[in-house]
């Protein structure tokens, strides 16, 4: 089992985290992000859809988009993230298309992160609500972008010709929201759990029962810590860590 804490070191300077909707990252990884930013790592977010189909109030979708963008910026700031990119795709209609993949490749080549985070591309049959089609599309788009497109100069060559964005090899891909059989790393967020909850509370349009949300998240983090064999009383986030370009990686294998 891998230890995410091992990555919080001077070799990790930049992390780019992708999500399908505003609030996805806060449910899945905000505690880990808070630990990273506290250690001086720069983390940026990319939210693929506008979240225009989310919420429980009867309001104009354009107003929902405005509110959800603002909620995500506030939530990000609460865990030390100051840059949030929005791709502007329609909520419920996200696809791992070349239109989306090109934008992912562009951001990765611009920022050159040592770690890319994304939602898991495999369906979770234990709790299907974790596998919203947009979540799966987010994971698939990022996976396809990272290999081979980001590191292949012949993929989207206009990014080199027009913007000078050279091919870049991503070292690590971290999936959150993974099926349990894929989990191989658990991050102890006990010291950052309140920051995670503060981030989640920023998404006021999404939580008609804040108490129920908080109870759910606490229980999930307790269960993660138990599966990860953390000390009794710990709270954790779960990941599927994938080495993309490790020391033993050779071209095409």
TrEMBL record:
One Gene Ontology MF term: hydrolase activity
Superkingdom of this protein's organism: Bacteria
Enzyme Commission designation: 3.5.1.-
Pfam families: PIG-L (PF02585)
Keywords, in A-Z order: Hydrolase, Zinc
InterPro entries: GlcNAc_PI_deacetylase-related (IPR003737), LmbE-like_dom_sf (IPR024078)
Enzyme class: hydrolase
Gene3D superfamilies: LmbE-like (3.40.50.10320)
Coiled coil: none
Protein name listed in UniProt: PIG-L deacetylase family protein
């Amino acid at each position: 089992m891998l230890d995410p804490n091992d990555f919080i070191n001077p070799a990790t300077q930049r992390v780019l985290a992708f999500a399908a909707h505003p609030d996805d990252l806060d449910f899945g990884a905000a505690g880990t992000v808070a630990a990273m930013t506290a250690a001086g790592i720069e983390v940026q977010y990319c939210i693929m859809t506008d979240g225009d189909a989310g919420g429980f109030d009867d309001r104009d979708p354009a107003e929902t988009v405005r509110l959800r963008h603002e909620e995500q910026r506030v939530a990000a700031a609460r865990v030390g993230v100051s840059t949030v990119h929005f791709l502007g795709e329609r909520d419920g209609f996200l696809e791992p298309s070349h239109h989306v993949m090109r934008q992912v490749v562009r951001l990765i080549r611009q920022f050159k992160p040592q770690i890319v985070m994304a939602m898991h591309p495999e369906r979770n049959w234990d709790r299907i609500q974790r596998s919203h089609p947009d979540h799966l599309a987010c994971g698939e788009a990022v996976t396809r972008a990272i290999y081979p497109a980001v590191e292949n100069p012949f993929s989207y060559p206009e990014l080199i010709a027009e913007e000078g964005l050279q091919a870049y090899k991503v070292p690590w891909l971290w999936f959150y929201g993974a099926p349990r059989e894929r989990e191989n790393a658990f991050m102890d967020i006990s010291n950052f759990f309140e920051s995670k909850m503060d981030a989640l509370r920023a998404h006021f349009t999404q939580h008609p029962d804040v108490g129920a949300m908080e109870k759910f998240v606490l229980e999930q983090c307790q269960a993660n810590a138990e599966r990860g064999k953390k000390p009794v009383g710990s709270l954790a986030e779960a990941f599927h860590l994938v080495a993309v370009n490790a020391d033993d990686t050779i071209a095409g294998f």
